[in-house]
Each structure stands twice: as structure tokens, then as C-alpha cells.
Amino acid sequence: MNRYYRYALIYSMFFTGISNIAGQTKYIDSLRHAIYVAGGDEQKLEAMVALCEEYKSIPRDTLDQFSFAARELAVKIKSSKRLKDLAELAVAYDYFRWGWSDSTIFTVDPVITANSVTKPEERSIYFKASRLKAMAYASRSHFQEALAILYKIVSEAEAYKDSLILSENTNSIGSIALARSHPQDALKWLSRALLAAGGTPRFIPVRAAVLVNVADAYHQLGKTDSAIFYIKNGIRLFRQVENLTSLALALQRQASILTAAGNFREAEQSLKDMIALRRTLGDGAMYAGDNISLAEFYLQTNQVKKAIQLCKDALVVGDVRSPGPDTAMSFSNAITIRLDYYQMLARCYKENGDAAAYQHTLEQILEAKDSFYQYNSAQAIAELQTKYEVQKKENTIIQQKLSITRKNNLFYAVMGIVFFAAVVAVILFYGYQKREKMKMAMMLEKEKDLALQSVAKAEENERKRIAADLHDNLGAYAASIVSNLDLVIPEVKNLRSGAALHELRNNSQAIVSQLNDTIWALKKEGLSLIDISDRIKIFIQRIQPSYPDTALNVMEQIEENRMLTPSHAFHLFRIMQEAINNALRHGKAKEIIVTIASSAAGWKITISDDGKGTPEHFSEKQKGNGLTNMQQRAADSGWDIVWLQNIPTGTAVVITPTTN
After folding, report:
1. Does domain 3-199 have CATH number 1.25.40.10?
2. Distance from the CA of 8 to the CA of which of 209, 254, 370, 587 falls in 20 to 30 A?
3. pLDDT tens sequence across 271-295
4. Domain map of the chain by residue range?
């Protein structure tokens, strides 16, 4: 993962928030207009902080102007606590946009302290400030500190049943997992974020962000087809809400996915669309990074001449102008930005075999680096001198500690040798007795294994015979009944006969379906979790036409595939089947997600829905045959099954092996 893509990934955790508008839109223009037509200072301050709330979507110079103006105005007019805190938050947004993480944290900490999550009127500011602090840590790759804050926010959002905050921040945790190259862990959090996101328009941006991150997770797992499916859905939603910043980041990820799929034409178009959006947004730093990404794409796809021309065009020096939709040319005066272009240009000349141009570009790189080092030399020397003095003192302390440690180690070594000799003597004495006992135990175990193998072989033969009989006899007869019933035409006037015939046909088809599921389990010597997942997908395809308004999805998080006996596999399939039917018939769910997870630590099956929900504990009257059968199957197989409530609505049925 190159550094531009990793930067964009961390940046996306911040920019894929809940804003429904983007830079250079009518909404931003209306916020600016509200500032100029405000009737008084209080109203003007309200308009300023409202504009700064869209910090992710406005140019940085605009944010500079209005964030500090809002802070000064809040002090001048002695505004309310809420407006003062929002003005401070606006300044923190500005620091974050410029990449000043320490200043962001320093500014936002008092705002977090001044607002309590327990007070409804302060809760919104508390969540915004806490999330910004987490993103400041994440921007410096301090993931541990960022995750500590995000976990706390998620816990508080669950306590106060705030689905929007919950989905937004679980998505951010998933983004951090992606930045750390842990796609399986990311999918767990993203699945939770998707389930928490409701179906109202205010959830569309966060749903789009989740879909883009899911696409990236599948891209990291090498599942390109799934990645393309999810990235296109995410981009469609971002276009719908005109969130240009997040759309640009999504287009960059789409280009990487399409490149991996070998679709270079669409990948190039995605990168060009992304750069066009950057120009609209006027973010010069990100625009330079995007140019480098496009040049990298040209280099990887053997379009070296295009990459060379792109770098040459970008290395124009002149008056500083931010790239914009009406700008014919942009200039790269910053040494750090020019260095990136020069290094990419050198790679292109080397790849193209142009030794003279390659040598000339290397000389330009050296000149640029000399200018950069000269600019920073005084500060660098001071820092080095300070580090030297500190290191010198630390070395003296280390030498003193080392001398003491050596003496202690000698004493402990002598005591250790004496103790070791005593332990060896005891081990040798008891070792002989233990070996004799082990020989006897092994003989008994061997006899026991032989007996169990004989029983297992007999059970296997009987299972195969039953499966064959079911297939050849009952299966054939049931299929024949269904076929013949299709040929029976009842008298039109005899309504009772027609209804009975229809019911008989449905029952016959159900018998065939049940027999097929039973034979599927019986005829195998063992079934894996992937086999069960495939069977559930077939079941979903079979019932989907009857429920066209419900989305049924299966998510596999299988790091270590596990084998089950035929009977256990059959029980697990029936439990999952009953849980899906309950969510459809009784829960009236609109979305059902079946998650099959397995790792070295164990396996877990979760059937989550957004339906009416069910109580966590059922009375005997509430259970009915279906729930009772599910519990009995789980108990017979040695599993735990629980019904949990989803937030905000719905039920999650969780099946796990019983732990002793």
C-alpha cells in the first residue's frame, strides 16, 4: 500500500461523516449568504459556526477566515456557552484541515471537558469534539489512542440509542482496521455499522461510507468482484447526496480495485474524475497527491509517456494559485511537492530507458533537497544538539544500571543452578513412574479407540444406507407426486377441490425440499462451515421471490474452516433456516444479514434483522414449537443459542459452541 493510498484511507475516516452536502454546492453558498444578511452579532455567529461545521467541504482559506472570526466574535459579544464551544470547535476543525494534529487536540480537549454526554443539550458537541480528537490521533497513525476514544463513543452511543453516532464511529473503527491491513476484523465492524444505519435519508452518507470501506476490505482479501459491487454502490450514494470530498476518495479506491481487476480504462477514468473533483474543492495538497497516484497508475499500466507528461505539467513554477474549475494552470512552488514529482519523473525516465533525462532529473532532486535542507538546517541542528545532550545523560544512567544488573545476575545465576539441579533430580525420580503409568494408559486408550472406530464405521454404513433409501424410494415417490399433481386439472366450479389440490401440491414440494436437505446432510461424511454457508445461500435463493421487499445477505468471515458431523451440520442448517423464517414471517424484517465467522478461537453464527424484535428471554407460552426446536437442536449438539435485541430495532440470533 503506497503512502498516498494509506493517507487517503486515514483521511477518509474523517471525511466520510454524516454531512449531506459538499463543497461548491448551493448549500454552501446559502450558508455564506446567511452570514452576510444576518440581523445581529448573535445571528451572524450562528451562521458562521454553521458554515464551519461543513469544514470537510469548504476551501481551507475560507475555513481560516470564518473559524477565527467566529472565535473573536464569541468573545466580543459574550455569547452563550454553546456558541463559544462551537466557535472553539470551528478553530479545531481548521487546525485539523491543515494537518496540525497537536493543535487540534490542544484546542478540542477543553471543549470535551466542558460538555457532558449525560446532558442532552451538550451531548451533540461532546460527540463531535471526541470524534475529532480520535481522528487527529488517527491522522498521525496513533491508532491505539484513536481506538480508545472511538470504543468509548460507541459504548455511549449504544447507551443513549443514538444509531447515527453508532454507525458512524463503528465505521471509523473498521477504517482503522483497514489501515492496519486487518480486513476480516474490519468486516465485523462494518457489518455492525451497516446494521445500525437506518433507511432514512440522513443515514445515506454513512451507509455510502460503509459500502466503500466494505469494498476496500474485499479488495484487501482479493475478492475483486465483491469489491467492485460494493464500491459502485457506495459511489452511487455519494453522488446522490453530492458529497464531493468523500466521492473523490471513493473514486480513488475504485481506481485501485479496477486496476487489480485489469480494467485499466475505467480505472484511469476514475482517477481523472477524482482529480476534477479535487480541483472543484480547491485542496492543493490532496490534488498533488492525486496527480502522483495517476502517474503511478500510468507507470504500472505501461503508459510511461503519459506519466512523464503529467509530471512535467505539474512541475510548472509561477504565481501561487489554488487549482479550481476555472483555472487553466496550477503551480508547484512548494519544495516538498516538487520533490514528489521529481522522484516520480526519475522513475519514469528510468523505466523508459532515457539515461540522460534520468541523470538530469536526479540532479534536480539533489538541488531541491539541498534547498529544503538549507531551509531547515538551523532548526535541525538545534534539535540534534538537544537530542545529543539528552542521550549523553541517558547513557550515563544506563551504564550505572548495567553495573548493578550484572552483580544481581551473577547472584541469581548461582541460585538458579542450585535450584535447577534439585528440580532435575525430582523430575528424574518421578519421570520413571510417570512413563510406566503412561504406557498402561496408552494401552487402555488404544483398546478404547478400536472400539469407537468399530461403532463409528457401523454408524457410517447405516447412515449411507438410509440416505440411499431416502433418495431412491421416498425421494422418487415425492418427486413423482409433485409431477403428477401438475397434470391434475380440477373442475372450475369445485372450489374446495381446487384449494385442496393447491395445498397438496405445496405440501408435496415441501416434502421434496425437506428430503433434499436431509439427504444433503446424510450422504456426506463431514460438512464444513463453507458447505453450510453455500446451502443457506441456496435456501435464500429459493425463498427470495416470496419476499421481494426484503434484502437477504450472507457474509463470510471464515479464517479457519471447520468440519461438522452430518447430524450437527443438519441441526445447524435447520436452526439458521428457522431463524430466517421467523425474521420474515413474524419480525417483518426488511434486511437480514447472516454472518458466518470462524477463527482459531472458535466459530459463531449470527442472524441479524431489523424487524419488530423479540424479547431476550421467552416464557414457555411465547416459545412455540419453532423456538423450542431451535433450543433443543442447539442443546443436543452442544451449542449455546441466544436471542439479542438490535439497536434501534430487530433481533440477533447467535449460535456458538458451549464453553466449559
Report:
1. yes
2. 370
3. 888 877 777 665 544 555 667 777 7
4. 3-199, 401-523, 527-657
